[in-house]
Hints:
TIM Barrel; disordered C terminus; 42% helix
Amino acid sequence: MTTYSPVLCYHRIGGPLELGVTRVGRSVFARQMTALARAGWKTVTLEQYGTVVRRADMPTCNKFLLTFDDGYASLADNAYPFLADLGYTATTFLITDYVGQTNTWDMRYTWDRLQHLRWQEIERWQARGFDFASHGATHRRLTWLDDAALASELERSRDLLISRLGAGAGRAVAYPFGAADTRVLRLGTLGRVVAHAANRCALGTSLMQVIGRRSSVVSTLTTDNR
Ligand SMILES: [Zn+2]
């Protein structure tokens, strides 16, 4: 039987409040990560995650993949430095057309214009061991696109990531809204690791609400292994 490491999926850390439910406060996030570190949990890189997933014999109960969707610029202030101090890494799924731009794609949820990470910041954190991958080119729901638009959305994003950040940045995609079907999976060419990560999208924050009780955090993370 294949064993999976948990995947925690966050979106925005700190910054203005929003209508949606994907923002987590900066101090709340710091408390959650600190509690995990004290309980012995370690993060894995995207490449290590692929290895862990494929090897059923590897003990995975204290390792997890920490992910951020959408790539907001505030991660560079409110999340990455704190994670680096803990010895943690993370994988951020970027909406590649919006790198360096504001969030016109989800203004209806956030009210405010929010800045996305710039390439220079992405490259700086990549050099410090953080991973970056695709969240599509424009955050469109992939299952609603025809074949040509779907291929364009995935390939354009992947090609840009590879040209800016190297081949490793082209190995994974987190599907916007977690929406995927067999057609998306086939065209995605990215395999099981990605689908697994994408399906965990939005689960992370609710799982982490039990962080105050350390033992239940550990059992939640270890039993949630489908
Ligand atoms: Zn998203």
